[in-house]
Write a structure and sequence with these properties.
The protein is mainly α. It is built from 23 helices and no strands. The protein has one domain (2-428). The longest helix is centred in the middle third of the chain and has 35 residues, at 267-301.
């Protein structure tokens, strides 16, 4: 019976989505249908209480603030300054300036919280510069596509906030848990770039400047604003001085200060950043509200419990379960954006994951990693869309260039499974 109900609700969801209804309203609509047809609960009262409860969460206030911070920085010269500060140090490394994509995305990820924003902001600066210097488009765009996904893993991360609210996990601990995996993944991307450069030495242009150590240090002054902002936001969380929400407010204040110092804090930029952040947050909040109601509906119907019992009955090992979930999310990522993936599945999967004895904090980082993969899988890969708009390249060509970095993300998942301390050690050291 459960199978028929599930199939019916999935068909209903795709039918509503296919008719052009917004994702949040589609989720709420399916939840309404499920409760109306398969339960005796009062639908209206349940919906009102659930949506209000999900929308009025204090934890959720960090989300619009981090989004606004990213929008402000998106309109500054921060990415340009980062390129100036990083480039002199990378001339001696195999691959040279290709590493500006990866390191630039890693740094910008720590102040943006968005994969698409990271990819677009860094790409606007690095791709024209790399092309002008003679670096091949394939590796330039491929490394940017992969490294742009770090916007989700390195805190602050919008996906982490959504998961934390959905799974009732500390957002501050999730932020800190993402630091080591993010840095290791960035290291894997750089290692791939070095190997590629060693195998294709004829495609790497010669160094275009030979600066002394003192000159390199002088150029590094461009990195001071962004490093200071990262230290303020993450340092305040790690030391227990501020909650994630308070750190987000600090981040907004810092980003406004950086914009003012760069002469970019005009009324137009302030207004556009506020409108852009509001528009994005409203979309996310509507999805979260719809998902909360759907989770309640599924709980009343009993589907999560029955699914959990079925999976437990399969007696999969934790590794087999993780691999199965990774494949499931990769397939799901071909059709849904990251936020929708998280909110659609958590209500069903969390009881199963807890039943298998998997740490929810570790699982949060795993979810972020597989959502990262979804960012570079066609047809619905947000980073691919961003790059398509910037480069005018075919989306399948872009996906092929990003595929090696997609494989490295799978390696990262397996590495994290066998060494779980990568994700859990740092949060355990937090004070406060």
């Amino acid at each position: 019976m459960d199978l028929y109900i599930t199939a019916f609700l999935i068909v209903a969801l795709f039918a509503i989505l296919g008719s052009g209804v917004w994702i949040g309203l589609s989720l709420a609509g399916v939840a309404w249908i499920g409760m109306e047809l398969f339960t005796t609960r009062p639908v209206g009262d349940s919906m009102a209480i659930t949506i209000w409860g999900s929308a009025s969460s204090w934890t959720l206030t960090a989300l619009p603030l981090f989004i606004w911070m990213g929008e402000i920085l998106f309109r500054t010269k921060l990415s340009e300054d980062m390129f100036k500060g990083l480039a002199p140090w990378l001339e001696k490394l195999p691959g040279r300036l290709l590493h500006t994509n990866i390191i630039g995305c890693t740094i910008f990820a720590a102040v943006s919280g968005s994969s698409a924003a990271t990819c677009a902001t860094i790409g606007k600066m690095t791709l024209p510069e790399l092309k002008r210097r003679g670096y091949p488009d394939s590796i330039s765009i491929g490394t940017l596509a992969g490294a742009g996904t770090l916007g989700l893993l390195i805190p602050p991360s919008i996906i982490m906030i959504v998961y934390g609210v959905t799974a009732n996990v500390s957002i501050a601990k999730l932020f800190i848990a993402g630091v080591f995996p993010g840095l290791i993944l960035a290291g894997l991307f750089m290692a791939y770039t070095i190997v590629w450069a060693v195998l294709h030495p004829d495609q790497i242009p010669p160094a275009d400047q030979n600066l002394s150590f003192a000159q390199k240090l002088h150029e590094s002054r461009h990195l001071i604003p962004v490093v200071s902002l990262i230290a303020a936001v993450l340092g305040s969380i790690y030391t227990g001085i501020a909650t994630a929400t308070e750190a987000a407010a600090l981040g907004v204040l810092g980003s406004l200060l950086i914009a003012a110092m760069q002469g970019e804090l005009s009324w137009k930029n302030f207004r556009d950043s506020l409108i852009g952040g509001t528009r994005l947050y409203c979309m996310i909040a509507l999805i979260l509200a719809g998902a909360a109601f759907l989770t309640l509906s599924m709980g009343y119907i009993g589907l999560p419990r029955h699914l959990a019992e079925w999976i437990i009955g399969l007696q999969l090992s934790p590794l087999a379960l993780i691999v199965a979930l990774m494949i499931f999310f990769i397939i799901l990522g071909c059709f849904l954006d990251g936020i929708s993936m998280v909110v659609l599945t958590m209500g069903v999967l969390l009881p199963t994951v807890e039943g298998a004895g998997i740490d929810l904090l570790w699982f949060g980082i795993f979810i972020v990693l597989v959502v990262e993969m979804a960012q570079i899988t066609p047809p619905v890969g947000f980073n691919l869309f961003v790059l398509q708009g910037m480069t005018k390249r075919d989306i399948t060509w872009l996906a092929r260039q990003a595929f090696p970095l997609f494989c490295l993300m799978i390696v990262m998942v397996l590495l994290m499974y066998f060494v779980p301390g990568i994700a859990t050690w740092l949060p355990q050291q937090m004070t406060g």
